[in-house]
């Protein structure tokens, strides 16, 4: 579409050699450890599967225990924006320098501006005594899955298509979901005006677009699970947000009372 913004994502390749070698292994040596709390909670999943909703619910449920990072951006702050509230602002040259020097966990460019999460930001949250919740691309596991970050990796799996479709419909009716509608509106604006005058098309085009988006979510979820499943500590099918949240919180609480299996490399 002519007016659609392009998003280009890039990921760090430094520190990945050891991880990539492990990816070739069928088995990974692990050790049983006494109960302990992980430093980070890493939520992995397809776009639109509900990771951010679960992350926000955890942050609100126990702000003394959970924290998260504030992303950096090279764009100029808006009039009502305060540095450090939603974003931390820095110049593009500074950000490019930090990216080159491996200071970002992940980064990307959107509409001509850089965005990213600094590795130091994770340490800052952990140093306050909180578990740092990260909602990241699965490739970030190449950096995170070490003794430095002691991650608890949770895969938020998409339910089957019909369930996801019903959930999405309910969310839209409740006014919760706006992303899909915004996408539909931008796509419709690029359609021929004569098509928009036909009621049947103004209804069917968004429905078809929505189905396509949801199918991509289910397919992406399956691809992530195939590629990274052996690194997940827990898998939760998000077919109901409240149920998924209870399962996630319950699993996190067990860390303080149950023994845990971790990679031997974290111990020795």
Question: Would you write up a description of this structure?
Answer:
With 268 residues, the protein is an alpha/beta fold. It has a domain at 35-68 and 131-258: Rossmann fold, CATH 3.40.50. The protein has ten helices and twelve strands. The chain has helices at 17-23, 51-61, 92-100, 119-127, 141-144, 161-173, 179-189, 193-196, 199-228, 241-254, and strands spanning 7-10, 30-33, 40-45, 66-68, 72-73, 88-89, 104-110, 113-118, 131-135, 151-157, 234-237, 260-263. The strands form three sheets. The chain has a five-stranded mixed beta sheet with strand order 1-7-8-5-6. The chain has a five-stranded parallel beta sheet with strand order 4-9-3-10-11, with helices on both faces. Strands 2-12 form a two-stranded antiparallel ribbon. A hairpin with a 2-residue loop joins strand 7 and strand 8 (113-118). Helix 2 (51-61) packs across helix 10 (241-254) and helix 7 (179-189) crosses helix 9. Residues 1-22 and 178-205 have low confidence and may be disordered. Pfam families: Guanylate_kin. This is Guanylate kinase-like domain-containing protein. It comes from Scleropages formosus. Residues 38-253 form the Guanylate kinase-like domain.
